[in-house]
Amino acid sequence: MIATQLFNSSFEFLHSVLGLVPTPIPTLLLQSFARLIILIGICYVIPESPANYNVFTFAGLTLAWSITEIIRYGFYVLKLGKFSVPYWVLWLRYSAFFVLYPLGLVCESATVYYSYEVIATRLPSYSNFLKYAMPLYIPGFLYLYSYMIKQRRKVLNREKQKLI
User: Fold this and answer.
1) pLDDT tens digits, residue range 36-75?
2) Which domain of life is it from (predicted)?
3) How many CB atoms lie within 10 A of CB 6?
4) Which candidate in 101, 113, 114, 137 is catalytic?
C-alpha cells in the first residue's frame, strides 16, 4: 500500500506538472502529504500503533481514499482516452467528495490521535511535528473542500449549459 501510494503520488505530481491532469499542485501536495504522514509516519514506522488495529478508522481511511481514487482515475482515463464521459461519472467525480473528504479527515485525525502516545514515546521529534501539523488539517481541509465546491459548480454548470 505504501509503495503504491508513493508511486501514484509521484506520477500524479508529474502529470500535474506536465499538464496532463488539471489538478493544481498545492491541492495535490496537501492530499499526498496527509496520506504519507499516515502511511509512512504511522502505519509503516509504527506498526504496533493502536490506530493500525482500529477497524473503523482503518476501514474508513481505506474506503475514503480508495473510492476517491477509483472515481478520479476512472474519470481521467475516460477523459484522457478521448472517450465520452458519462454524466454519472462526471457527477461522482465532482460530488463524492462531500462525503469522502470529511470521512478521510475524521479517520486521518483519529489515526494520529490513537497513535500519538506511541509516537511520543518512540519518536519525540515526530510527535512534535504532528503536534504542529495537525492543526493545519483544518485550513488544509477547508482549502481542498472549497476548491472542490468551486470546481463542482463550474464543471456541472458547464455540463448543464451543453444540455440546453
Assistant:
1) 888 888 988 999 999 999 999 989 999 999 999 899 889 9
2) Eukaryota
3) 15
4) 101
Active-site residue flag, 159: no
Q: What is the model's pLDDT at position 64? A: 95
Structural domain count, the chain: 1
> Which residue out of 12, 76, 94, 108 is catalytically annotated?
108
Cell (9 digits) for 54:
482500529
φ, ψ dihedrals at 47, nearest 5°: -65, -20
- Alpha carbon separation from 24 to 14, 19, 31, 96, 144 (Å, rounded): 11, 9, 11, 19, 11
Residue 108: active-site member: yes
Report the 10 Å Cβ neighbour count for 77: 12
Q: Per residue in 108-142, pLDDT tens? A: 999 999 999 999 999 999 999 999 888 988 998 99
The domain in which residue 69 lies consists of 1-163
Grid cell of 159 as nine digits: 455540463
Tell me if 34 sits within 8 A of 137, measured CB to CB: yes
Pick from 149, 147, 116: nearest CA to 30: 147
Give residue 103's pLDDT: 96
What angle do the packed helices 25-38 and 137-163 form, to 10 degrees? 130
Q: Are 65 and 43 in contact (CB under 8 A)?
A: no
